[in-house]
Amino acid sequence: MEKGAFSREKFKNIATPFYYYDVELLSRTLKAVKEEVSKYGFSQHYAVKANANQNILKQIAAAGFGADCVSGNEIKAAANAGFPTSKIVFAGVGKTDKEINLALDYNIFCFNVESLPELEVINSLAEKKGKTASVALRINPNVDAHTHEYITTGLNENKFGFSLSSLEHVIYAIKSMSHIQLIGIHFHIGSQITEVDTFLPLCEKVNELQDLFESKGVNLQHINVGGGLGIDYEDPNNNPVADFKSYFELFNKHLQLRKGQILFTYLHLAPDPEQTEGLLKSGVTAVAYETVTDRAGGLPLLAPMSEVAGRLAIEAAGRCLQRHAGGRGVLIGGVPGVPPARIAIIGGGVVGTHAARMAAGLGADVVILDRSLPRLRQLDEHFSGRARTRFSTLHAIEEEILAADVVIGAVLIPGAAAPRLVSRAQLSRMKRGAVLVDVAID
Predict the structure, then answer these.
(1) What is residue 418's three-state secondary structure?
(2) How many other CB atoms sit within 10 Å of the CB of residue 30?
(3) Which residues, including other chains, have CB under 8 Å from residue 101's CB and lie 6 or more apart?
(4) What is the CA radius of gyration of the chain?
(5) How many whole angstroms from its chain centre is CA 374?
(6) pLDDT tens-digit readout, 358-393
(7) Are the C-beta atoms of 301 and 289 separated by less than 8 Å?
(8) Residue 2: its pLDDT value, please?
(9) What are the distances in angstroms from CA 302 to CA 198, 265, 268, 309, 346?
(10) What are 367's strand-pairing partners?
(11) Distance between CA 84 and CA 86 in Å, rounded?
């Protein structure tokens, strides 16, 4: 791929083989994956065999990814690059005793196992070390990836993984292996898959298999769906990053959670009774980031997101205020001889405080409304006159939003839906072109 000003002419005098890595594009890709994964509580692993360059590995490890390795040397490379060994998966066929012992010494997360003899070897080597090896069974689901025949790996005629017909025997055999802990199942149906709906039959098969394992008394804690999402080789410059949004949406929608599994993510269940009911029926243990509290009663997992949201709210408001975007054509900080924008912030918590910092820093006329007098005193002392504070009543809110160029909704009731403080009738009376940024919207 040709990127930026680095033209092909610059490659002509470089000896081959030569490898050119676009780390900016890698950074964008990692960010896109993390943004989508964070919505659903999934974890993501990088296949080290794709590129084991230490600089590349370090960048991926720093982004919080795990590592999927297929050799002992890849395990070493991943650990040296900074991947926590608790996030390393050892997959692939033909694992040697030396490699298995290495993985056991590193205390990796789990082995993805392809055959019963492999299970027996891992059990024996783990016993000698006095350890228990966590394993996931790679299963051939007989699902067509609709890609090139040489990179299709999920059909009956492909050589990878346990066949569906062998699973009951394998489950029975594992129960006699005292140094094996079965924690999950693993799939990989193929590579260069460009149609996301191709993964739908896999989800259906995974759900069926979870029923089978449950009937045999096995509660699967982890489902590894493999990789395979393709790259647009036809038009890479216009579509350099894969469609991770649709990819993760599909798995979130169609994979069914089970009792014994753990979902740890932002849930925001208060306004979503349908999702709440579904989680209750599944028997899953669900932990909502936004309700985890520390000893002081704070929300340590929600706070960083709120800080970002508060600051971004002002950036978004500034863009929307511009005339070409339909706004009032008012600069947030004003200019000499022209007054700044009036910004009303409803809620003086983390979101509201950081929004106020951004707005006041730009020179805006800021007012913060909150129902807590102790909090208003803290804010008044913190801003030292750079932002006004006002006790929040329905009358005060109406008065401020009608005078405002920008209104920021920043009210939070932990574990509950945000209250509706601004009516449609009031919206219709706001200044023409005024901007409303509701961070608290559910």
Answers:
(1) coil
(2) 19
(3) 125, 129
(4) 27
(5) 36
(6) 999 999 999 999 999 999 999 999 999 999 999 999
(7) yes
(8) 44
(9) 35, 11, 11, 10, 18
(10) 344, 388
(11) 5
CA distance 312 to 317: 8
Looking up tokens 């039959």 gives 201
Q: Which two tokens stand for residue 143?
A: 């699902």
**To 5 degrees, how large is the angle CA 32–CA 33–CA 34?**
95
- The sign of the torsion formed by the CA atoms of 293, 298, 300, 302 equals positive
DSSP string, 120-145: HHHHHHHHHHT--EEEEEEB------
The strand pairing partners of 162, in sequence order, are 139
What are the residue ranges of helices labelled H in 133-269? 167-174, 200-215, 244-254
pLDDT at 215: 87
CB of 310 closer than 8 Å to CB of 438:
no
Q: Which of 220, 45, 71, 229 is nearest to 134 (CA)?
A: 220
* CA 130 from centroid of its chain's CA atoms: 36
Contact 73, 81 (CB under 8 A): no
**What is the rounded CA–CA span in Å between residue 152 and residue 71?**
21
Q: Catalytic residue at 268?
A: yes
Q: How many residues does the chain have?
A: 442
Cα angle value 167/137/169 (rounded, 5°): 20
Q: Which amino acid is at 409?
A: G
Q: How far is CA 187 from CA 22, 203, 337, in A?
A: 30, 10, 65
Please confirm, yes or no, whether 188 is among the known catalytic residues: no
Q: Which residue type does 93 have?
A: V
CA 27 to chain centre: 15
How many helices and strands (H and E) does the chain possess? 14, 14
Cα separation, 164 vs 155, whole angstroms: 11
Beta-carbon contacts of residue 412 (< 8 Å; ≥ 6 apart): 306, 347, 349, 350, 351, 418, 440
Residues with Cβ within 8 Å of residue 151, at least 6 apart in sequence:
145, 190, 191, 192
CA distance 419 to 140: 49
Catalytic residue, chosen from 179, 268, 380, 438, is 268
**Please, what is the Cα angle at 137 between 136 and 142, to 5 degrees?**
135
Which tokens sit at 200?
């739908």
pTM recorded for the entire structure: 0.64
Contact 104, 129 (CB under 8 A): yes
What digits encode the pLDDT tens for the residues 40-55? 888 999 999 999 999 9
- pLDDT category, 121, cuts 50, 70, 90? very high
Residue with tokens 């009543």: 393
